[in-house]
Amino acid sequence: MNLIAELQAARKRQGLKQQELAERAGLSRMTVQRIESGAIDPRLSTLVEMARVLGLTLVTVAATPPGQVQAASPEPLPADDQA
């Protein structure tokens, strides 16, 4: 399940209408409707606020996109003591 679907499911579990979520999050009902339908790509801050209103914590994790090489570790590798 993606993030938007999770927020929508949480809203429905709590019995909130789009209008109620919108009012509590400082958004318009149309904005909530467009986010849930995938018509717009919302700002992260908007999703964080929606999650907060729904009692959820939104956690973001930076990841290397598929196909890209991750930067090398700045720490040196341990020396080989087999001399």
CATH architecture of the domain at 3-53: Orthogonal Bundle
- Tell how many strands the DSSP assignment holds: 0
CATH homologous superfamily (4th level) name of the domain at 3-53: lambda repressor-like DNA-binding domains
- End-to-end Cα distance: 53 Å
CATH class of the domain at 3-53: Mainly Alpha
Query: What count of helical segments does DSSP give?
Result: 4
List low-confidence stretches. Answer: none
Largest sheet: none
Mean pLDDT, rounded to whole units?
A: 89
Helix content: 40-55%
Radius of gyration: 20 Å
Describe the 3D structure:
The chain has helices spanning 3-13, 18-25, 29-37, 44-53. With 83 residues, the protein is an all-alpha fold. The longest helix is centred in the N-terminal third of the chain and has 11 residues, at 3-13. The N and C termini lie far apart (53 Å).
Compact summary:
With 83 residues, the protein is mainly α. It contains 4 helices and no strands.
Notable features of this structure?
single chain, 83 residues, mainly alpha, 434 Repressor (Amino-terminal Domain)
